[in-house]
Amino acid sequence: MFAGEYLCKVDDKGRFLIPSPLRERLEAEGNQVMFVKNTEQTLWMYSAKEWEKVLERTRITLDEDQSRLFMHHVMSQAGTSDIDKAGRVLIPSRLRKLVPMDEDQEIFLVGMYHRLEVWGPSEWRRYLTRTEDRYEQDMAKIQNLL
């Protein structure tokens, strides 16, 4: 399971060092990750093993037309990347352009159970501010789950 938020510096080539707690889990599930475009100027990042589970769920659940839409709008936009020996991963350039990074070229990795989300720092902070009221309203239910 992925949890927490991690601020990562992106180098000129578009690589970032995966924080060690995340890297251990990712490497245990294969040495490759899949980046998928999300709707909120973010990317979803899956381990190779988890991505295979996603693909299997789509094969089982989607009808032929839905499957074609998935292939045309999700798979065609996805990109793979290997984790190098230094623990870095390259965000494919066409996908990197979708994540608005500040001048200091940083991203936030946010743990989301079975995947990670890749956010630009300003967008992440705006999102947290925008959803704070909803979080506070639902906090009683969230606390009961903990």
Automatic annotation (TrEMBL):
Domain of life: Bacteria
Protein's cellular compartments: Cytoplasm, Nucleoid
Presence of the UniProt keyword Transcription regulation in the record: yes
InterPro entries, A to Z: MraZ (IPR003444), MraZ_C (IPR035644), MraZ_dom (IPR020603), MraZ_N (IPR035642), MraZ_sf (IPR038619), SpoVT-AbrB_dom (IPR007159), SpoVT-AbrB_sf (IPR037914)
Gene Ontology MF: a single term: transcription cis-regulatory region binding
Any Gene Ontology biological process: negative regulation of DNA-templated transcription initiation
CDD domains the UniProt entry points to: MraZ_C, MraZ_N
Pfam families assigned to the protein according to its UniProt record, in alphabetical order: MraZ
Entry-linked Gene3D superfamilies: Transcriptional regulator MraZ domain (3.40.1550.20)
Domain spans labelled SpoVT-AbrB: 5-50, 78-123
Family under the similarity heading: Belongs to the MraZ family.
UniProt protein name: Transcriptional regulator MraZ
Source species: Nitrospira defluvii
Lineage: Bacteria, Pseudomonadati, Nitrospirota, Nitrospiria, Nitrospirales
